[in-house]
Amino acid sequence: MLTKRIIPCLDVKDGRVVKGIQFVQIRDAGDPVELATVYDEQGADELVFLDISASHEGRKTMIEVVREVAGTLAIPFTVGGGIGSLEDMRALLRAGADKVSLNSAAVRKPELITEGSDFFGAQCIVVAIDARYDESIGSWRVYTHGGRNATEWEVCDWAKHVVERGAGEILLTSMDQDGEKTGFDINLLKAVQQVVDVPVIASGGAGNAQHFVDVFKEADADAALAASIFHYKETSVQSVKGELKENGVHVR
């Protein structure tokens, strides 16, 4: 049986880790290299770094952060934000990232998924999908640019499309649940899980260890990601894994 992964997420802006609620109300959460080291020691299975400013200066900062973190980590990590070309992917992978995450660029230029998958292998290409429920379509709509821009894509259609394009993994964030700490969006996860055959990482809504138990038992997510509850020490990776083991969920 495959073990479930616990993945802390570091949203990085101008070289610092930050966290918000529903993609706004951003506040500082610490130094990315220090936090990465702590999570490695706590037993995190992977890390995700998202450069949420992704300006020209932010990109240079991120390359340095990736290089520093790669020198201290023993676990895989994924880097996303502002990646718009094969060259951007190459630079981050060369700096020490194990995978790259595409979001807005994938919607703007879907062939980038295929190019990256063909060149580096599908296992290196994660497509991040930010989804918000839309009453007008009775489903979830895909958003880009840090949750600011609505697209024409319905989430399940987009998920199928990115996998056909060569994505090896999907990082699925519920914008409705992001930072709310009321639990992952089980219905969203189930809907996407039914239409793709690649691992899906649940993101958005973790508030306690029970929420991780729920997302693995009810939605059978492959991995679950959280940020603020780890950054602000409301719980730890060890505590979450302990709770999962007690509930019969297989973890490393």
Automatic annotation (TrEMBL):
Gene3D superfamilies: Aldolase class I (3.20.20.70). It is an enzyme of class 4 (lyase). It catalyses: 5-[(5-phospho-1-deoxy-D-ribulos-1-ylimino)methylamino]-1-(5-phospho-beta-D-ribosyl)imidazole-4-carboxamide + L-glutamine = D-erythro-1-(imidazol-4-yl)glycerol 3-phosphate + 5-amino-1-(5-phospho-beta-D-ribosyl)imidazole-4-carboxamide + L-glutamate + H(+). The active site is at 11, 130. CDD domains: HisF (cd04731). It is found in: Cytoplasm. GO terms for molecular function: imidazoleglycerol-phosphate synthase activity; lyase activity. Pathway: Amino-acid biosynthesis; L-histidine biosynthesis; L-histidine from 5-phospho-alpha-D-ribose 1-diphosphate: step 5/9. Keywords: Amino-acid biosynthesis, Cytoplasm, Histidine biosynthesis, Lyase. One of its GO terms (cellular component) is cytoplasm. Its main location: cytoplasm. GO terms for biological process: L-histidine biosynthetic process. Its EC number is 4.3.2.10. HAMAP family: HisF (MF_01013). Heterodimer of HisH and HisF. IGPS catalyzes the conversion of PRFAR and glutamine to IGP, AICAR and glutamate. The HisF subunit catalyzes the cyclization activity that produces IGP and AICAR from PRFAR using the ammonia provided by the HisH subunit. Belongs to the HisA/HisF family. This is Imidazole glycerol phosphate synthase subunit HisF. The lineage of its organism: Bacteria, Bacillati, Bacillota, Bacilli, Bacillales.
